[in-house]
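Researcher: Quick one. two chains, 576 residues in total.
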Amino acid sequence: MWDEKKSLIALNLNTLPVGICIIRENYTISLWNRTIEQWSGLIATDVLDKPIEEVVPRFADPLIQERVRVVFRGGGPVIFSSRFHSRIFPILSETQNEGKIQRITVSPFELSDGEPRAMISVEDVTAITEQVLKYRQIKDMIKNELEEKKKTERALAIALSKLNTLSSITRHDLNNVLTAFLGYLTFALDEKPEGKIITYLGKMKQAAQLMQNHIAFARDYQEMGNSLPSWFNVESLVRSSGVGPTFSGMTLNVDTGTLEVLADPLIEKAIYNLLENAVRHGEHTTQITIRSIPMEQEVIIIIEDNGTGIPLQIKGRIFDRGFGSNTGLGLFLVREILGITGMQIIETGTENIGAKFEIRVPTGHFKYTGH
Amino acid sequence: MNVSEEVIDGIRELVTIGVGRSAGMLNRLTKAHVTLTVPEVQISNVTQDIQLIKPTANSINSEEISHIILEFSGELTGSFDLIIPFLSALNLVMLLTGEKELSDEMDALRVETLLEVSNIIISSVMSSLSIFLKSRLLFQFPRYQVGKAKSIIPYAITGTLIGIIAHTHFLVQDRHVESDIFITLTPESFQYLKIHIEQAMENGL
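Model:
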């Protein structure tokens, strides 16, 4: 009857995916299951009744013995983690995948014969250990990269701040000198010079004014991207830009609903420039229309006028740097400002009918309030 | 709750023996210098006096805690709970394993390590109780959980009435880690333990 019970237990323990070894209080082996046979290459019949330290030499370690003793003394289960004991039970071959890293638990195990036993269960934690270590490695790598990125960002921010300060001081000083220069040129011209001198002085004044425009351009360009983009209601932008004497007698038709775009704060200047260009270069412009067309992946904002339009021969150059910079920002800066948040601008109007600008706003950079 | 000083001394002695033995094992296992002391033991009727426990049990006041539980039954029925503030538990594991890089994550390997360290303490104390009582107990397998102190502590005391609260103090490589041991027992179990301690005192053991 008792042998039958033992056989049944052995049969059940053989089906478990963990290695099981049962020892008696005198540390001799009374059960060695099939899983531990496979991992260790040691057959049950060869190890049964042998002292555990003969079969598993690590059990000769006094610390391990002392801890197993706790189980027999009624201290409850004992855990040997893989961190402190990477492998206690031997494995058949170093090349095998199973059982390389082990987690061992020793629990009291009692049968009806009353003899105290301890069940040693060996779990294979190779895969999970390797995964956790790999995960830690990846985490450390990301952490290091983030730290490096932060350092670079800090260095760039300092460099940018220095450049901005330098640029601002230089511009300010240069402007002061230029103002004095222009003042003296004006005095010189007031002296009514004759001959080539008057021509040269006039050209010098033109050159100095051009320099002032360049300085203004540099100031606007420097401001770009310095502030975080934010949401702007398109109709409000147009309405606030299209005011003042420049637009007197001009009809502004705005049909963009509640459309808002994510843009650099300089977008106000960009919109003003587009409207001002329509008036300045349109010659007989009386009407500017702003509307939006929702597409599948984007929204197109159209700004068109009924002026003279842009001549075909200059269409390809209107967005070039310096082109038209005599008057305000120039379309180069308009394109740069819009480009900060992924917007694109093209001109699709017809000469003698009117200028037409299309601004393409990508998904995620526009929204309709109330939706 | 009225428990005589002799009984409290007896329990403190049993817990201290277990904890002392576990410190020796931890020293040898981790090769780190570990000192473990039990400066304070309190016995309380936990279902009524939970507020009384708080000043002693620092861990209860922590926001997040690591909690290792061992339940047992037999002549003593109850549970053994080792509670460490989460960050202290993480620090303890890293100190004992010699990890240099600081981390805020208790991953599977660290949990396993903490389980072994806690297990050394728990089984040492439980074996000192078992040897003293000369009784064999049935044990569940120890388990680990992490969470808010407020949600875990009531669980630890459910169905039990008498709590032995021992404040423990680790000193690992000059770093201090505080934790609390809760041994919660049924009234019958506590009575059984009390009688054995009183008998031992009478016999001069």
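Residues 75 and 118 of chain B are 23 Å apart (CA to CA).
Researcher: Thanks, that's what I needed.
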